[in-house]
Amino acid sequence: MIRIVLPQHLRTLAHAEQEVTLEVDGPVTQGSVLDALEARYPMLRGTIRDQVTQQRRPFLRFFACEEDLSHEPPDAPLPQAVASGKEVLLIIGAIAGG
Amino acid sequence: MELPDTDRKADAREEAMSKVRVLAGTRKGAFVLTADGKRDQWEVSGPHFAGWEMYHVKGSPVDPDRLYASQSSGWFGQIIQRSDDGGKTWHQPGTPPGEPPVPGPPKAASNKFVYDASDETGKPLTTHQWYDGTQHPWEFKRVWHLEPSLTDPDTVYAGVEDAAIFRSSDGGENWKELSGLRGHGTGPKWQPGAGGMCLHTIILDPSNPQRIWIAISAAGAFRTDDAGKSWKPINRGLYSKYIPKPTAEVGHCVHHVAMNPTRPGVLFMQKHWDVMRSDDAGDSWQKISGNLPTDFGFVIDVHAHEPETVYVVPIKSDAEHFVPDGKLRVFRSRTGGNEWEALTKGLPQKDCYVNVLRDAMAVDSLDKCGIYFGTSGGQVYASADAGDSWNPIVRDLPAVLSVEVQTLP
């Protein structure tokens, strides 16, 4: 089980709680987690990553286990603590300058 | 002039029976403002989509309860919202609220705007000019303007940044670019204005379904006569001293274009500087700035019943985006331009430094034409007497990006 914390605006769009939980088949990566998130909440397609290029939107960041994972490749495994559900994957709206 | 009793009674009857609905998009949400035909007591609903930039909200002329809204964010991208009950409830087309998730690919594609570069119907994705004069990739950013069809509530056009026009024929669920515009061939000469390289104006011709006018900052105005397959620039007569060749075919920063639907082909334009008109569907333009205190501005609109009565809000300059002399004044011409009168009754005439953006003025179609506009200071003003006097509907909204009005039976 993967636990994801969404920013407020995306929670509103998805009619979801702050923390959502997902099951991911196969390797747990940014890409597979976002695939599962968008399959469950299709209204979020395009809000976290570009629908065509799959690039992360520039003002969004991915944090977990006190690490910034934003620049990790989409197919890189997420930390084991995220894959096991012990830690959450935080999707954060970047605070540009305060 | 005193009205005869019969006219006065007819006016009173219309005012009592009719209703207007003003749709205001702001930097931090959308608001729906409603009143009866007297237009003096208003109910305010909102904010809808609180915290988001609402670039535009507009209703279908065929089904007034069908509203389309552009919800945008630099963080989270572009969302299209639709209401089928006049703004009481909203949903993303294709994803009704409460719809259970289904296996397989998501159905909702309403926020997917992909430039059509296909071999069959598309045009190659080119670059455009950047602020520094270099070439820059064409990238989708947001929807600036939504224009519902005049005949079908499920058909709606979207003007987007980076400039292109899209159409949906299924109520906003799926969008397809009319790529002939972006692929016109002059794309590498288009460049962004201060607000971005946006397609902000879409005018549908009620007398000819094949004809559409659009305008882009900063490329100019274009027209199609074959329902969007091919487009031609219509900028002859425009003069823009901030481009290398001031009379160039494209590159002009057109801020807005308006047309009275009863007189298709007569167009009024607020350019970056200069107020212009065309009497030949845009084939040529003449300057009508006349005695305006400044002819920089964003909005322009036309009276619903008097096609030679035009409204603008002059802004001091391109460097100082506020009204001149601290006075908020709408200027009205009853002669189709050149001769303008300041309308000030009810508007602040001291220490006022607001702006009025390009899509933030609208007119209703009641017999006594109502005029509406919103400001960067969050005020939405209404005039129920064609501009002679004004009252604020609301004073303290977030900065207003767009104003539309619906006249309801």
Architecture overview:
The complex is a heterodimer of chains A (98) and B (409). Chain A is of the alpha+beta class and 98 residues long. Chain A has helices at residues 8-14, 30-40, 80-83; strands spanning 2-5, 19-22, 60-64, 67-68, 88-93. Chain A has a single domain (2-93), classed as Ubiquitin-like (UB roll), CATH 3.10.20. In chain A, strand 3 and strand 4 form a beta hairpin. The model of chain A has no long low-confidence stretch (mean pLDDT 92). The model of chain B has no long low-confidence stretch (mean pLDDT 93). Helices cover 4% and strands 37% of the residues of chain B. Chain B is globular, with a radius of gyration of 20 Å. In chain B, a hairpin with a 7-residue loop joins strand 17 and strand 18 (267-271). Chain B is mostly beta strands and 409 residues long. The interface between A and B is medium-sized, with 23 and 23 residues.
Features:
heterodimer; A: 98 residues; alpha+beta; Ubiquitin-like (UB roll); 5-stranded mixed beta sheet; B: 409 residues; mainly beta; 4-stranded antiparallel beta sheet; 2 helices; 4% helix; 37% strand; globular
Summing up helix and strand content along with how strands pair, one would put the structural category of chain A as alpha+beta
Mean pLDDT of chain A, nearest integer?
A: 92
Low-confidence stretches of chain A: none
Question: Which range does the strand content of chain A fall in?
Answer: 15-25%
**Shape, per Cα inertia axes of chain A:** globular
- Unreliable parts of chain B: none
Mean pLDDT of chain B: 93
Strands ordered across the widest β-sheet of chain A: 2-1-5-3-4
What is the CATH C level class of chain A, in words? Alpha Beta
